Amino acid sequence: ALRAKRWSITEAPDHVPSRPGLYAIYGDTIAWNELGLTPMPDLPLYVGKAEESLARRELQGHFAGDPQVKAQTGSSTVRRSFASLLRGTLELQGIPRNPAKPGYFSNFGLSIEQDLLLTRWMHDRLSLAVWSTPPLLETPLADIERHVIRRWTPPLNLSENPTPAPGLKAARAAMATEAKAWRPAT
């Protein structure tokens, strides 16, 4: 299912269920190039799990598929990975995810304008495939996710991935350093 039907982010709300499951994020050739990766559009860029609702986790948390929802990079590890690799291309700068109470800089965020820019890029370049868990699944979803990540090695997965994208950890660390050095405009 994760290699089968994919939807653009704008189409996904009509297809992604409010059920637990796995999701795979795919990018077009331009996305792979802009991320600094060798294009392999048939390979997902990222695989993750939603323990409660694929629709809520993906369409609200990562993609802001609903125009009423504003996705926040500080609350999404996959958005932080995209932001890190697109830092130069989109001219992004890490800030604390909560500028009113700076801290936890590895969970850096982006300004409102830059979050919107990243969301627009994601809507233009990415697609989504999902697999809903069957009702009587006995295997923990985390175990299935781990197996899929180890088998497919999606480049933006850091956890459980034996070969994440070269430079991804360093790119995320650079944005975390920016967030730590951030000061409000006076």
Description of the molecule:
With 186 residues, this protein is α+β, with helices and mostly antiparallel strands. Helix content is 37%, strand content 11%. The protein is built from 7 helices and 4 strands; from the N terminus they run ββαβααααβαα. The chain has helices at residues 29-34, 54-62, 77-85, 87-90, 112-125, 141-152, 168-181, and strands spanning 7-8, 21-27, 46-50, 126-132. The protein has a 4-stranded antiparallel sheet. Helix 3 packs across helix 7 (168-181). The longest helix has 14 residues, at 112-125. It is globular, with a radius of gyration of 16 Å. The relative contact order is 0.21. The mean pLDDT is 89.
Give me some keywords for this one:
four-stranded antiparallel β-sheet, 186 residues, alpha+beta
Quick gist of this model?
The protein has 7 helices and 4 strands; from the N terminus they run ββαβααααβαα. The chain is α+β, with helices and mostly antiparallel strands.
Give a topology summary.
Elements: E1 7-8, E2 21-27, H1 29-34, E3 46-50, H2 54-62, H3 77-85, H4 87-90, H5 112-125, E4 126-132, H6 141-152, H7 168-181
Antiparallel strand pairs: 1-4, 2-3, 2-4
Helix pairs in contact: 3-7
Total E-strand runs: 4
Total count of helical runs of at least 4 residues: 7
Largest sheet: 4 strands, antiparallel
Q: Strand content of the residues, in percent? A: 5-15%
> Taking strands numbered 1, 2, ... along the chain, how are they ordered across the largest sheet?
1-4-2-3
Q: Rg to the nearest angstrom? A: 16 Å
> What distance lies between the first and last C-alpha atoms, to the nearest angstrom?
51 Å
